Amino acid sequence: MGCVTLFNIRTVKLRPGEQFRDARNVDLEPLGLGGQRYVPLPESPEAVLTLTQTSSGLVLELELEVRVVGPCMRCLADAGISLHVGSREYQATSPGESDELTTPYLVDGRLDLSAWAHDAVALALPDKILCRDNCAGLCPVCGRDLNRGPHEHEGEELDPRWAALSDLRDRL
pLDDT digit string (tens) for 68-86? Predict the structure, then answer.
């Protein structure tokens, strides 16, 4: 694990209804997705942290812009996606035993901005990162990139279950 960006919230003194806002660079680790590695660019994007004190606790908000790059999930070519990420957490003044009233990113007055931003980026990602929306992927037989053009294999044995469709295609 590389650098971690921490923010000591004890340095901020707020009364209920008051807000603190600060922009700072947050170190982001690469993301593992579908067995592939996706790198955030920049690796330390600027994030805006907003703390709002309420009568019952602290509302924490984080916003950042980042581009995530790595292999296309269909053809393995270079792919990337730009994201606007916004995340909100809450820390109750007296949470009791409830996990819902605390944020896992705040421990002993230190807010782990890197872990929070990493998780927020991961949640903002689409199901598939593709080089383009209509990516054709790779040939399941030979692994050739189908975006460069379709192809057929000599002596390819067809599955007998598809024979009726092949007959129909030949008649058209």
Answer: 999 999 999 999 999 999 9
